[in-house]
Amino acid sequence: MSFARTIRWPHTLSFRLTLWYGLIFTLSSGIAFVFFYGLIAHTLRQRLDSQLSGKISEFEAIFNLQGLQEVKSAVLIESQAAGEKKIFFRLLYPSGVAFSSSNMSYWQTIGINRAAVRRLVEGRAVRVYETLTIPGRPDRVRIAYGIIGRGVVAQLGYSMESDTTFIAIFKKIFFLTMSALIVTALGVGWFMARRALSGVEAVTRTARKISDTDLGQRVPIMARHEEIDRLAVTFNQMLDRIEKLVAGIREMGDNIAHDLKSPVARIRGMAEMSLAAGPYDNCEDDALAASTIEECDRLLEMINTMLMISKTDAGVSETHMQPVNIADVARAAKTLFVPLAEDGGLTLTCTAPDTVLVSGDLRLLQRAMANLVDNAIKYTPAPGTIEISVDHDKTNKEKVNISVKDSGIGIGADDLPNIFNRFFRCDQSRATNGSGLGLSLVQAVAQAHGGCVDVVSEPGRGSLFTLHLSGLPEIQTNPGD
Description:
54% of the residues lie in helices and 17% in strands. It has 481 residues and is of the alpha+beta class. The chain has 3 domains: 14-166, Beta-Lactamase, CATH 3.30.450; 226-314, Signal transduction histidine kinase, dimerisation/phosphotransfer (DHp) domain (Helix Hairpins); 322-470, Heat Shock Protein 90 (2-Layer Sandwich). The strands form 3 sheets. The protein has a 5-stranded antiparallel sheet with strand order 2-1-5-4-3, with helices on both faces. The protein has a 5-stranded mixed sheet with strand order 7-9-10-12-11. Helix 2 runs antiparallel to helix 5. It is rod-shaped and about 155 Å long.
């Protein structure tokens, strides 16, 4: 994953959906924890209160049947049986003064709640409970007050150490479990978000391919998500209409080009016949006829180029694919254009191995190479240099790069995205003869061969056009042949 993609990742819809899913799950888990924690704590407290109340009821029964002395004996026996650090008992007067108790050495910091005793004596409660925290100890104590007989109030205290330990274990297990579940939930959320948005990804990929002029692409219908499928169907219907519209525009352009070709050819023919029938007394008539022939040739060249581009884009041109030594094509272009370059004060060179094979149409490749070199000569002022080079790609030996580098006027950054469009001409190139179709033809030829063409340019420092094609292994010949 590239750094730029990593930077964009938190802004993706998949990440946001996963984040919301994780937040909602965490919030729900927190609410569930609070609920269950409160329920468990309340249940444990009720159970403990029930036990303390049961003990007070036992002492009340002993007091009514056997008297106060038996209650004192029962208190001592009970505290020793449970453990003096686990439970303690006090017997109190209605005034809140203790007159008997179990061993209180461990509970000496626990006082008597006289307000609780008063509530019992006044009949406002049957049992009074409170929870106290002992300084320096992690556990707490649950205290219960109750009347066991006339003039006698029992105070019972029970250590909540076991309950505290149970709750601590519950917290630990809950947090560990929830941490694992949250991580799992985030993973599941990411998977579900990516799965739910897979249709959108398909639409995006198709739109990206279409932006590269491939109107035949369509979004696959997954038959999984109704909303995404409706989007895909609508998108495909839109593409059908766009493709029909573009096909209609191309057909109209081709028809116009065909319709123009015949009358222009007739005009040229009549002008040529008129010029051949001369000489005229008026030299202006000769010049007019010659200019008419020249302009007709330019129009015919433009029409033929438009037709070739349209057929190549549509994939209906008659291409004859065969092994082509593109190095020979480059050297032939250099030989063809050297006189024109020297007339303009330019130096034209070619660097290429003896043999570099590609599979292609020789006629189209020659036309593309000629257009690149002619384009470089047009926009390179003297003294200047033009370098043609052919070599294998450094990162992929199965690819071949054909480059034309010049030291000309260059192309502005605003114009670079448009230079391969039909009839587009940069502002600085409008003073030079041309139709704006040369680079469009080069791109059409590259795409017809499964390749591409790119450009690197800077105003005032020249341009580098590179045609990328798929290479063929060199044909091995028998030395004895």
